[in-house]
Amino acid sequence: MEALVVMDNIRKEFPGIVALQEVSFDIRPGEVHLLLGENGAGKSTLMKILSGIYTPTSGRICVDGVDYSRISPNLAHQLGISVIYQELSVVNELSIAENLFIGRLPTKKLFKVMNIVDKKQYLKRAEEMAKRVGLTKPVTTLVGDLSISEKQMVEIAKALTSEARILVMDEPTSSLASDEVQRLFEIIRHLKEDGIGIVYISHKMNELRMIGDRVTVLKDGRTVATKNMSDISGEDEIIAMMVGREIKKEFFSPIPVDYQSAEIIMHVDSIQRRDNKAKGISFDLYRGEVLGFAGLVGAGRTELMNAIFAGESFKSGEVIIKGKPIRIKNPYTSIKNGVAMITENRREAGIFPNFGIRENLVLVNRLLKSRVGGFIGVVNPKTDEKLAQKQRERMQVKCTSLDQLITDLSGGNQQKVIVGKWLASEAKVFIFDEPTKGIDIGTKAEMYTTMRALAEHGVGVIMVSSEMPELLGVCDRIAIMGNGELKNILHIAEATEELILKQAAN
Fold first, then answer.
1. Strands, DSSP E only, in 79-156?
2. pTM of the full predicted structure?
3. Are 313 and 273 contacting, i.e. CB atoms less than 8 angstroms apart?
């Protein structure tokens, strides 16, 4: 079968670093080609070359039998190459139909002289595309009113309206519930039947055999192997190729917390949000424990954490830290009182994208040293440099220099910078909201180690996660939420995946 795209001996150099070294990759019609590797392995760089964002230092790109030394974004669009990124690029303020045709709305002549938007035509075509991907909402619905999975369908439909033949999906299931994942897989199967070639990037090992036809593994900018999935013995083989070693499946055997004598480091009393996404929730967080929060999509876990940390939609209730009542008004109040939060959406709320790594690592520390309302006063470059270097080494951030923009880093290294900046705050309470979302298995293990190390040093840790195995493997207790309510808190010895799901669904 002739490939839609062949990328041959692709090399990409940045100042001080070789990101890709003679990587070869191809995409065939009607297949899902898995592209795997740890964060920083070169996956995103390779796809940015395919979509025209980066120019390769050397190598050849062949599309439909025509060779190119580089592809521009405009040419990629003309060739039918489309990328759906993990951070979706939909515009919430526009309708589904307007998102599908943004920048290229069809027009018609008015009085044979003036071009106006042909609303009837684009609404009709939008309905056809929405139906094709299984989107049932009216195409006049604002995208801001859609769920994450529905927004993802809008992204896929947008790619199809541009007649994409090569579709790159970057961590497409990172924010989806299990039923939504199955719906996405059904859409992918239909796309395969239409002859569309799909590049699928994921760190979720359990998905790979369900959806993949072939797999290419990258490590340190080099191709490790390309194999048919039918020739892969199991996920252990893939993990070994990705990390160059076997990853132990067991998590931790933490020192049991003596809940009879342990200090309550944070008491949350009857937190109520105005939007009812948290309904009178109370719980205790003990010194030296990792308290997990489980629940289905829409359970209200993130909304509860945002109310505690940032006062978002706060109506009533109280947060007491080490015996001191705190009126949470905004994040600055929480930071000053020893609460840190690693947010679920790192791009929108976790990083400062226009700043370098150094500034991202030291900003919270600067806030703590400020005297009035978060105003950052005199900056000490030597102190900042020393602190940033310490946190970079502590979190093993892979970068060319501290001056490098944080957006140039892989997702896993961005997450390390975010955790590093909060570690510098020496907070008493750490909230990790989906800390392993979209990061590779090696970096996940580092995150688990960091959380357990914090607990062992007397910090109270909260971990919100949709990954049941990591909750069961890392936490001391697991709080179960559903429909904005706290259903139960289980000690880890009694917690099972089946019990948690049953209680979360009731």
1. 81-84, 107-110, 114-117
2. 0.63
3. yes
